[in-house]
Write a structure and sequence with these properties.
The protein is α/β, with parallel strands linked by helices. It is about 55% helix and about 15% strand. α9 links the parallel β8 and β9. α3 runs parallel beside α4 and α8 crosses α9.
Amino acid sequence: MAGALTLSLAGCSSTGGKRAEDARKAAAARGKAAVTTPRWTFAMITHSGDGDTFWDIVQSGAKEAAAKDNINFLYSHDDEAQQQAQLVDAAIDKKVDGIIVTLAKPDAMKAAVARAVKAGIPVVTVNSGSEESKEFGALTHIGQDETIAGQAVGEELNKRGRKKALCVLHEQGNVGHEQRCAGVKDTFDGTVQNLYVTGTSMPDVQSAIEAKLQTDKKVDAVVTLGAPYADTAVKARQGAGSDAEIDTFDLNAKVAAGLKDGTLGFAVDQQPYLQGYQAVDLLWLYKYNADVLGGGKPVLTGPQIITKDQAAALEEYTKRGTR
């Protein structure tokens, strides 16, 4: 399944990138958007904390699509679920024309999404909350299935002959993170142990991983759930004198470089640029033509397993902030 997704997603990403590049050139040449529809306002509200580079990539895709589609794009975020819900309420009060939202902590977001739907504002969910999206009244969900992504990791660890893995969860209460680690356990022939860390403090993350590697020499793989944590795990491995392989979810320039030089084993890319781009584009299509993709199922942007073999080809895109 992961292999099939790799082939199909590569084509999808290539197409989205070309469309964005064409739109950017067209806008520069004509000084206007590539469409003639009204200037609608779309708001994206995510559960991101400050300084999370993953969401910079999501925004990059969303802004490219917004430029093409003549959209006034608003972005806000808060890693506290109640505050995120309040940001959704604020977007509703502004009478925006569409809302894009993440459901990392769905129970806290359910009422806010319901208010948006009741107000007649179309909602698209991205990144997290694929299981709750349809139930909450969203048009569709764009992202990767977190369980399938975790299962792909377990299968890759098996191929690499690993026996004991540490799954590092940096945001407690995030259902997607729990699903990822549960997915690893589903398919991994070895043992998986969850390690909960305080993701807002990299020194704490490093010390927690280092302590675990020092006390359990059988751990031969560390799986982090976000690209910024991979480098911290590498430092923890060095501090512990461990030879455990460091693998990670998500991709950025530093991860691509780590894959290329062998510091990291593999990464799971969910193509965040595509999530932002498609979310804006699908809302525009719905407003313009009542189009809906997915047929009631999530529109998958991952998982795609990235190893040393693919890292060099993708490094250029990570440096420009689109992968």
